[in-house]
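#struct-pred

JT: dropping the chains for the assembly here, can someone run the whole complex?
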Amino acid sequence: MAQTQSAVQVTHIAQTHRLKRPQWRHILPYLLIAPTLILVGLFTIYPTIRTLEQSLYEPGASTRDERGRRVQEPDTFVGFQNYADLFITQDPPHPIVGSFLQVLGNTIVFAVVTVGVTLPLSFGLALLMNRAVRGRALWRFSLFYPVLLPLIGGASMWAFLYGNTGGLINIVLRSLGIPTQDWLNTPDLVLWSVIVVNIWKQAGFYMIFYLAGLQAIPKDIYEAAALDGASYFQQLFSITVPLLRRTTLFLLVIASTYAFQTVEQLDVLNRGMPANRSNMLLWYIYQIYPSAQARGYVNAISMVLVVILLTFTFINFAFFERKDDDGQ
Amino acid sequence: MVGVNPTRHRISRTIIYTLLILFAGFFLIPVYLVIVTAFKDPQFINLQTVWEFPNPTTFTTDAFPEVMEQFGPRFTNSVILVIFATTISAMLGSMNGYILSKWRIPYANVLFPLMLFGMFIPYQAILVPLAAFLRNVDLYGGLPGLILIHVVYGLPITTLIFRNFYADIPTELIEAGAIDGAGFFGIYTNVVFPLSIPGFVVVIIWQFTQIWNEFLFGITMTTNENQPITVGLSYLAGGEAVKYNLPMAGAIIAALPPLLVYIIAGRYFIRGLLAGSVKG
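RK: done, full complex below.
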């Protein structure tokens, strides 16, 4: 009888012996998982394909006929023209179109610096918190709370700190006799000001994952290493770091995905200005997507963003999985 | 540790606490400034007094009712949004995780990566066709459409977390349930679900903070009266810059619900991570 055997075996039997009539319990898992697959497909794969398709077209002009009715002319197929347009930096046809290369550069710097600083920082914070410190919950909360706030709220706090005349940072600098800076309006500084906000926002989150990872490492490994005379830093780099590789992989993927996906702080921190120096791909897309004329261009940018992110994810997985094999 | 030199021990303690204080300072200064500013009359907020604590002359709570009025329905919208979207995505994620880890369905090794593919798509990058799609199914502009978006985009991560979590539940427990005559749902409700509480806590905190704090979908996929609180917050920050107490009070109000969730469930969150729910 089916009930006397394990669920796993039952499915196995169903596969190998081909029951004559399909049983309800074998179809059920598919029925339950189907809505998720259909919805995720409809909301990710379908729009991605549409974006790819529309990135090959020039949108038709929207005109009015003699009765004043809106007439939408059909789109024209232009091949890779929209992608070629991305590299046009002079004589922009639209006030903000034409800055793609600048914006792409900003986004890459932002992602690399944010991930590159935040992960080691949160690892360091986790190492500190993992020591027997007094009031650990309080320390942890004071490092973790930015994670819980809406980024918009956090960014408006920082906008206040960065203020040119009344900002706290400049007040401190002035009292120390150091020249003040207009943090959000100086082209060479603005991206770094945005990066600091993101590090502040996310370090506590990744710290929690590292802390969990650290606490899962058996203590006797360190005791054995200490008996062999390994110093603290030798233990750190030959035990702790390698054992937290899976955590690091997970965080690297999550953190880089977030770096490309979170841009709402720009709404408060000078909206990508001055001169697009703090603009990033997603914010750029958001700014120009309402413009019907720029639709092909926006879709081309969107595809670039999709491809960058997927490539990055695949490289990440491939790199770390090969390392896992080496370790075996 | 055995045989540690007490002087060295004291030095390392000092270093640890100094570093902690420095970092905690970097993390806490903004929040200090927010609180003292939110409770101050804007006419007293200037260069010299910006980081003074409010005193009887400067203290006022006027900013809070004013901000609530400016938020309008957006606070309630966010509450409805986060409750529905978090619950639905957690329940479906749990069911998916159970199926993918404990029911060896054929092609699971194809279905699961396909679902994960959804996780790495920068959803916001495909705003244009997504908005068009929502218009076609008549969900554009309203709260149900926004709930659906957050459920769908939450599903890959909730499925991933639950799948990894259930992978650690011994298969013998499932088999024992099957021997007792329990079916698919019986095993889920009697065996799997009761063991899932730490997994649910992780997923709920994750989803709650993601959805409550999300901005770009909120501003592009909803009409004015259906916007979430983050959009209201951006209007405050972009508004008249003289009344600095308003964005600060707004930031406090918007931060309270996620803070509350963390204070109630935070210890379980970390326990849930330790239980191996998020291994990647």
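JT: nice. Chain B touches chain A through 101 residues (CB under 8 Å). The CA atoms of residues 88 and 151 of chain B lie 7 Å apart.
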